[in-house]
From TrEMBL:
PANTHER family: MSS1/TRME-RELATED GTP-BINDING PROTEIN, PROTEIN, PUTATIVE, EXPRESSED-RELATED. The lineage of its organism: Eukaryota, Viridiplantae, Streptophyta, Embryophyta, Tracheophyta. This is GTP-binding protein.
Length: 135
């Protein structure tokens, strides 16, 4: 479907490439009449990352529908990683200062299958919403 934007990985890209992708994605999000929402993947196995907060803030300011998909919820990294449930709690506390009501969120793990059915149902509901609005 042309309504799906491929996943973009900013962390491993150069600053120039991140800027180019940022311009592309912002234009895409603002100019797609058929866009019904964005799934923002957030790595729950690491502490809150500023880039995730910045993305969520920008999407909210521009009234783009958003769902947080917390990934790697089964992984507990030693050292500074922390526990996924603690990282998610801190992330949502930070989001609370950006949104009067937090966007929906789903915990997932590709290893255990956690959240798979919920994520598929959520995407189906978004699609049904769009289909009903378009008719």
């Amino acid at each position: 479907s042309d309504q799906v934007l491929p996943a973009c990985r900013f962390a491993a890209a150069s600053k120039t490439a991140r800027t180019d992708w940022s311009s592309f994605t912002k234009g895409y999000f603002l100019n797609r009449d058929t866009l019904v929402g964005v799934l923002l993947l957030v790595d729950a196995s690491v502490p809150t990352q500023q880039i995730d907060l910045d993305c969520a803030n920008w999407l909210g300011r521009n009234n783009v529908g958003l769902t947080f998909v917390f990934t790697k919820c089964d992984k507990v990294k030693k050292g500074k990683g922390g526990r996924p449930d603690e990282n998610i709690k801190v992330f949502l506390e930070n989001i609370g200062s950006l949104y009067p009501r937090p966007p929906p969120w789903i915990m997932t793990s590709s290893t255990t299958g956690l959240g798979r059915d919920g994520l598929l149902l959520h995407m189906s509901q978004l699609r049904n919403y769009w289909d009903n609005e378009a008719t």
